[in-house]
User: Fold these one by one.
Assistant:
Number 1:
Amino acid sequence: QVVLQESGGGSVQPGGSLRLACIASGSPNDVIPMAWFRQPPGLDRWGVAGIGSDENARYTDDVEGRFIVSKDKDNRALYLQMNDLSPADTAVYYCAAARETRWWAVLYESEYNIWGQGTQVTVSS
């Protein structure tokens, strides 16, 4: 069974940066961390950044240009560099894994069956 562990969350002032990490452990090795989702207080969870089976990075409009998603060469770790953070980015951030995704659906919850426990990101002055 694959287990995902997120880290790197915390509190930061507006304009600051954080780097989240998601590390996969267990088997099978072909279940790969692929995307980051977030759930703001009182709202649903949705995808913000991911690298799909086609190896292309995708972002939602509200984070593109500020967030960068990357992964390690072994496909066992997924990272999210978050820059120029604002209070609107406050949320619990989740990592999601799957064997593969449809290239256009990497930010869709329905593509994933393995989730991390989440890490809190709080942006406030």
Number 2:
Amino acid sequence: HVQLVESGGGSVQAGGPLRLSCVASGSTVGPSCMGWYRQAPGNEREGVASKYSSTGSTYIACSFKGRVTISYDNKYTVYLQLNNVQVEDAATYYCAASSRLTGLSLTPGKYNYWGQGTQVTVFS
């Protein structure tokens, strides 16, 4: 069973960067794919970016291209940097992992492990 722990949330000044970290544990094999999602109150969960461990491939959702970087140290970690943070970026950010995916995906139902989420507020 994979456990995911996110860190790096909190209050961020508008215009500044946000950096989030996620570490997976509990699996000797490691997740095949890890991703970042966010959900603001009243909104659906939104995929931000994902990485596929075996190839190192990454994918950033269209609405975030140019502002988001996804990176990792190994198959157990994934980092998200969101630049030029706006008030609309306030949300709970979730790390997700899959032991089943054989390629990049941001379809929530294909992830079988989720972190508790880290809340991000934005002040101007």
